[in-house]
């Protein structure tokens, strides 16, 4: 079906390349957690093992440090993401409960408030009131939550999904620099690890831009520069401490 207006011949509905489908909030939430978790796993573990490699060529010492860093980082990322998203979810529940009370106790003021929001968006008062009335009849809580709070009551954030996505992706990301630096011969382990990490960070930078609809080139360069800087600093610290201790 097309919009019946002068100069407009477009199908009614969302664009195919835009995320309007139900549940997109949760999907984007765990995708964000997964990409950030993988990125953190790559950078933090690479910095750790490269730093230890700067201090010693002992493969066992590098492996133990890497495994300890991987385990600690994965658990920390999962717990941190769970706490953060749980706090957000608690706030969403509290705001929705407040909105339910207001709709029950003072529906006329709530209707006027919703109409006022649409007037602020550019509608006439008459049209805004019609829109508010129809949306309230269809789903009062959903209409008010979306317009006033930016919350979809049917698509609240899921702390467990974010926590598991973050923890597992951190582990996968951390395995790349850990396995690379342990399996490569001593003379080449640092440069090969640096190259592998930079390529992986380019991928996670592109993925973060893709999921966030941002500029891919900027995200990739920013990611690569941050990883290179972290490895340079930790390698320098390891080299200095390794010669002094």
Structure overview:
It is built from seven helices and no strands. With 245 residues, it is mainly α. The protein has one domain. α1 (24-55) packs antiparallel against α2 (59-105) and α1 runs antiparallel to α6 (189-212). The chain is elongated and about 75 Å long. The chain starts with 23 loop residues before the first helix and ends with a helix.
Brief summary of the model shown:
By secondary structure, the chain is mainly α. The protein has helices spanning 24-55, 59-105, 107-120, 125-149, 159-183, 189-212, 216-244.
Number of helices: 7
Give the helix/strand class.
mainly alpha
Biggest pleated-sheet summary: none
Order of helices and strands: HHHHHHH
Low-confidence segments: none
Q: Could you estimate the helical fraction of the residues in percent? A: over 70%
CA radius of gyration: 25 Å
Count of distinct strands: 0
Termini separation comes to 75 Å
Strand content: under 5%
Mean pLDDT: 85
Q: Into how many domains do the coordinates divide?
A: 1
| Broad shape | elongated
């Amino acid at each position: 079906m097309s919009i019946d207006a002068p100069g407009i011949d477009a199908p009614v509905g969302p664009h195919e390349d835009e995320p309007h489908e139900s549940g997109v909030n949760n999907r984007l939430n765990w995708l964000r957690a997964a990409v950030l978790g993988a990125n953190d796993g790559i950078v933090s573990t690479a910095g750790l093992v490269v730093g230890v490699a700067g201090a010693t060529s002992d493969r066992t010492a590098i492996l133990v440090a890497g495994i300890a860093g991987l385990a600690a980082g994965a658990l920390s990322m999962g717990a941190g993401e769970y706490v953060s998203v749980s706090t957000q979810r608690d706030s969403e529940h509290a705001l929705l409960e407040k909105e339910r009370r207001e709709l029950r106790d003072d529906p006329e003021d709530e209707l006027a408030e919703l109409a006022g929001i649409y007037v602020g968006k550019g509608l006439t008062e008459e049209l805004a009131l019609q829109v508010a009335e129809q949306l309230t009849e269809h789903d009062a809580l959903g209409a008010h939550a979306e317009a006033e709070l930016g919350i979809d009551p049917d698509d609240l954030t899921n702390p467990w999904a974010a926590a598991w996505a973050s923890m597992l992706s951190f582990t996968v990301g951390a395995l790349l620099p850990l396995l690379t630096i342990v399996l490569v011969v001593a003379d080449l382990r640092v440069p090969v690890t640096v190259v592998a990490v930079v390529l992986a960070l380019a991928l996670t930078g592109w993925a973060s831009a893709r999921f966030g609809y941002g500029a891919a080139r900027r995200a990739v360069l920013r990611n690569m520069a941050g990883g290179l800087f972290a490895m340079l600093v930790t390698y320098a610290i390891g080299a200095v401490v390794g010669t002094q201790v």
